[in-house]
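URGENT: need a sanity check before tomorrow's submission.

F., can you look over the LysR family transcriptional regulator record below? I want to be sure the sequence and structure line up before it goes out.
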Amino acid sequence: MEIRHLKYFLILADELSFVKASEKLFISQPPLSRQIKELEDELGARLFDRNSKKVELTEAGKYFKQEVTLLLDNLDRVKLKTQKIGNNISGEFRIAYISSTFSGDIAELIKFLSSKYPFVNFSLYEVPTARQISDLEQGKLDLGIIRAPLKSPKIATHLWFRDSFSVVFNKQLVQLDTEEDIEKLKEEIFVFFNKDYAPHYYELLLEICAGYGFVPKVVHESNNISSIIQLVKNGLGSSIVPTNILKSHNYSELGFIELKKGNLFTDVLIATPKDDDSEIAKAAIGFLLR
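Structure tokens as predicted:
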């Protein structure tokens, strides 16, 4: 059994059409049929039910697809890690962050690592939490900066810092002086992170508003903290953001009031693939936790 047999099988299992699968593989149908037949003969099991009208996976085929997908994903991870070990401390080191955590600290981290490892190309990406978790599990990222919760046996985490929440508003349009004034926002428009982009974070913001006795009127959504801040700055609504945002988005038009009621916090985590003994990752974690 060769890897190409498995890859051909997966393409056909996805397309369920010899015509479409052969076009995607840039081969004609007879060789594809022959490869699939060889695979079925070696396994001693029929993977597809096929006739002139349709192609379907058998129960054996469904199970085989699930296991082969995991196998090839793991093979990619092994390949990436082998390349990384072979490169030692040269090559590429990939760091991801979510937009609400980008700060001068991350810029200083890249500066520190570039100085310490001058032959390494440090790549920085803004990536949502769900995708970061997937990429870390597959070894496609070397270090991630995300918000809790993170539940994966394949990822190791360190608490970077715990952040409170603050309401942010346009001072020219909204008059708030103390935390007790927050209930005045119950009739105001809110700008939130997109629910599909950050579902846990979105629910947490709803919980905060409920603690102040209202359901927010969410009209605008974004998947980027800078966009949210700009919308608030331009008078298109108010928002609730991590307090740490004030460091990098301190505009004269904006007012911030920290929300202490309910004692709700958000944990920012440094995440790496579990059992990864990368010298660079250890140096990065040490720098951020200093």
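My own read: Residues 165-264 form a domain with the D-Maltodextrin-Binding Protein; domain 2 fold (CATH 3.40.190.10). The radius of gyration is 25 Å. If you see anything odd, call me.
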